[in-house]
Design a protein that fits this description.
The structure holds 2 protein chains of 2 kinds. By secondary structure, chain A is mainly alpha-helical. Chain A is built from 13 helices and no strands. In chain A, helix 3 crosses helix 13, helix 4 (68-97) packs antiparallel against helix 10 (201-229) and helix 6 (119-129) packs across helix 8 (156-184). Chain B is of the alpha/beta class. Chain B is globular, with a radius of gyration of 27 Å. Classes of the chains: A mainly alpha, B alpha/beta. At the A-B interface, helix 1, helix 2, helix 6 and helix 12 of A face helix 1, helix 3, helix 9, helix 15 and helix 16 of B.
Chain lengths: 297, 426
């Protein structure tokens, strides 16, 4: 208690931040939790009442089109594919940029560009590029590759692929910057020692580079998973709200539609709690299994 | 070893100090929370709107004029995208806040009325004032007036490029004939360089004229969807044939693509709304607008939905502020301001007196627009329309994508609409 008493200055300094957290995180979270057990919707916006787990039951059993499980699987695919390519491309480019090459800062700036452009602009530009007749993607495919044009935005699989391609382009710079920072913190002595031992490029990558960037990359991947899982913008804008025929939704765009198109606030709150629990468990398990909090050295 | 007395002293001291610090912090933070609440300042009027840039510029000019006349009154117009405007307004008003005035299309009135977040206006404006407006510009719902518009229409018309087409088609047969002539592969590379007609395939709002041309409509008088019938199927078949049989429209087009094709002279005609015409003129296209054609087999005009765009008053506007809000609203809806807006944007005003104004009568676009409004049908304001759009959208897209037959799409639209309405009203 004496130590606690001495730390009062620390509590004083952290109290304002804590108060703001109460206002912008804890209160909305608790409010969302409460309305997830309520019947709040268009007809009961002010006179809502608690109805137990009914909204949660609806989330898992309601025959929506598309259904919860289909969207969930699609969300997993969306998240896994995106984060996989973000990390692979990001780390690959970071390894290249970490070499002694001329004009490194120019390359670095160019590669960060996708991250610097507002998502809204990126999404709408890519949507235009995926147009069947006038989009640059199909023009390249037909003119230079002599392949038939693809109906990117009209078929469910292609439309979903179009969203993924856009998000891969948008997301790799973050991983690249994180990986580059981690690479630059690895002492040169380790590579020098490995060179003396006659280690190959692959052995150095496997035994020095990857283990030493892991403590930085694991939290970045966890963040990437959470962000991608909850990335409404790209899906919503590239596929124009789930087109074609509501077949490109991921869970978060489905929640958005339920809440703001159909005013089903209780249902949307329950579904968002389900998303929260999924992400919470993923993060805890992933961090534990990957031993992200352990020191690298 | 710490004694009990010392321990109590420390604990008590600690609690007192902690309590004092937290109290000071909370008190110092109170203005922050209070500022979020935005206590109603009777001299500050806030408008939320979803106006486009050209509309916004005129609104801001008119607001500046108002503030010059009324020194001490501050008017702030805040733009929000349509969906954000609705959801933000709902959330803010439920929390007892929000703007004093909300501007938008009439279809937001249904949900707002059900949620009881806007004021009935017939109790605020006298009947003489209300009677000055075209009834189509006044949105009544469940026996009360909830919105007074400054623009009437928001309607689709056939817009054509006069340098490519001199006389717009009057019937569906003429549309197909003209469309075939104007769909050309100029360089013989097997690709169409210019289409006869384009429009946005992704929004069912653009399907409505074809549906009405064959005698269909979205709902009955009780708000029940009426989508699985011969009229809707015929409308769907017609647009599918325009693409697959007559080949006068592109395989794929959303709003931006259709808009760009027309602006670039790659399409002779476009079906688009009154919001777009001024933009085409500014882009250098010699545009003409014409009512959408008549369907020969039914003898019916392709009737677009007509929707006024106007102002509603937040339920939370206090009694000591309402007169100032009403005064501003009357200014914005005044003859002078509506005329300025109509002539700059080519949109139809709502004050009856302006329909006799020479500038309106002699404006070709506005004259044709008035004709189209007469052919059009008022957009329902029932909240169920939201669910109906949502049910129509994927199925309309599926027909144009070749994934569903018109018969199947109509059937699925109806089933989905009923289910979504039930979900909304659960």
């Amino acid at each position: 208690m004496n130590r606690f008493y001495k730390n009062i200055l620390i509590f004083t300094f952290t109290a304002p931040a804590f108060l703001i957290l109460i206002g912008v995180v804890f209160y909305p979270f608790i409010y969302n939790l409460v309305i997830s057990f309520s019947n709040m919707n268009l007809r009961h916006i002010t006179d809502w009442k608690l109805i137990g787990f009914q909204q949660y039951i609806k989330v898992f059993t309601e025959p929506t089109q598309p259904g919860f499980y289909g969207i969930f699987i699609k969300t997993i695919i969306w998240t896994f594919v995106n984060v996989f390519f973000h990390v692979v491309i990001g780390v690959f480019l970071a390894l290249l940029l970490n070499q002694k090459i001329a004009g490194k800062s120019v390359y670095r700036t160019l590669l960060i560009l996708p991250w610097a452009i507002p998502q809204y602009i990126v999404a709408l530009t890519w949507r235009g590029m995926f147009n069947y007749e006038y989009g640059s993607i199909n023009l390249i495919i037909t003119k230079y590759l002599n392949l038939p044009a693809i109906e990117w935005l009209k078929n469910p699989t292609e439309a979903f692929l179009a969203c993924i391609l856009t998000n891969v382009w948008l997301g790799f710079p973050f991983m690249m910057i994180v990986a580059l920072g981690a690479l630059q913190s690895i002492p040169d002595e380790l590579y020098e020692a490995a060179n003396i031992d006659g280690a190959s490029w692959y052995q150095k990558l496997k035994n020095i580079t990857l283990p030493l960037i892991r403590p930085v990359m694991i939290p970045a991947i966890t963040l990437g998973v959470v962000w991608t899982f909850n990335n409404l913008n790209i899906i919503w804008l590239v596929s124009n709200g789930g087109e074609p025929s509501d077949s490109t939704h991921i869970l978060v765009s489905f929640v958005y539609k339920a809440a703001f198109n159909l005013y089903r606030y209780g249902y949307a709150a329950a579904l968002s709690m389900v998303i929260f629990v999924i992400l919470l468990f993923f993060s805890l398990i992933f961090m534990k299994k990957s031993r992200a909090t352990e020191a690298a050295y | 070893m710490i004694t009990l007395t010392k321990y109590l002293k420390i604990v008590l001291n600690f609690k007192i100090i902690l309590f004092a610090i937290l109290s000071i912090l909370i008190i110092s933070f109170l203005p922050l929370f209070n500022s979020c609440k935005q206590p109603s300042n009777p001299d500050r009027i806030v408008i939320w709107h979803q106006m486009r840039v050209d509309e916004r510029l005129i609104l801001e000019k008119q607001i500046r004029k108002y503030m010059n006349i009324h020194q001490g009154i501050s008017v702030e117009a805040i733009y929000k995208e349509t969906e954000e405007l609705r959801s933000g307004f709902i959330i803010a008003t439920i929390a007892g806040q929000g703007p004093d005035l909300i501007y938008g299309p009439s279809d937001q009135i249904g949900p707002f009325q059900v949620m009881n977040i806007i004021k009935p206006l017939e109790k605020i404006f006298d009947s003489t004032y209300i009677s000055m407006f075209n009834p189509k510009g006044l949105t009544w719902f469940k026996g009360s007036l909830y919105q007074i518009a400054d623009k009437l229409g928001n309607h689709l018309m056939l817009v054509y490029n006069k340098s490519l087409l001199q006389k717009p088609p009057q019937t569906d047969i003429e549309l197909i004939e003209v469309g075939k002539k104007l769909t050309v592969d100029k360089d013989n590379d097997g690709k169409i360089d210019q289409y006869g007609l384009v429009w946005n395939y992704t929004e069912p709002f653009f399907f409505i004229p074809f549906m009405t041309g064959f005698g269909g409509w979205v709902m009955d008088e009780n708000g029940n969807p009426t989508l699985d019938n011969r009229e809707v199927i015929e409308g769907l078949k017609f647009i599918r044939d325009l693409r697959d049989l007559h080949k006068i429209i592109p395989r794929e087009a959303d709003y931006n693509i259709a808009d760009a094709l027309f602006k670039d002279g790659k399409s002779a005609m476009i079906i688009n709304g009154d919001w777009s015409w001024a933009g085409y003129q500014k882009a250098g296209v010699d545009v003409g607008v014409s009512p959408l054609p008549r369907i020969t087999s039914t003898g019916l005009w392709c009737s677009p939905m007509i929707s006024p765009k106007g102002y509603s008053i937040n339920i939370n506007v206090s009694n000591d502020k309402i007169n100032k809000v009403v005064d501003l609203l009357k200014f914005l809806l005044s003859e002078e301001n509506q005329l300025e807006t109509a002539l700059e944007l080519n949109t139809m005003p709502t004050l009856n007196i302006l329909y006799e104004h020479p500038s309106i009568i002699n404006n070709e676009i506005l004259r044709n627009s008035k004709l189209q409004i007469e052919h059009g049908r008022m957009m329902p304001v029932d909240p169920e329309l939201r669910a109906i759009w949502d049910a129509m959208r994927p199925n309309y897209q599926a027909v144009l994508g070749g994934a569903k037959s018109p018969e199947q799409a109509a059937k699925d639209m109806q089933i989905l609409a009923i289910r979504k309405i039930n979900e909304m009203n659960e």
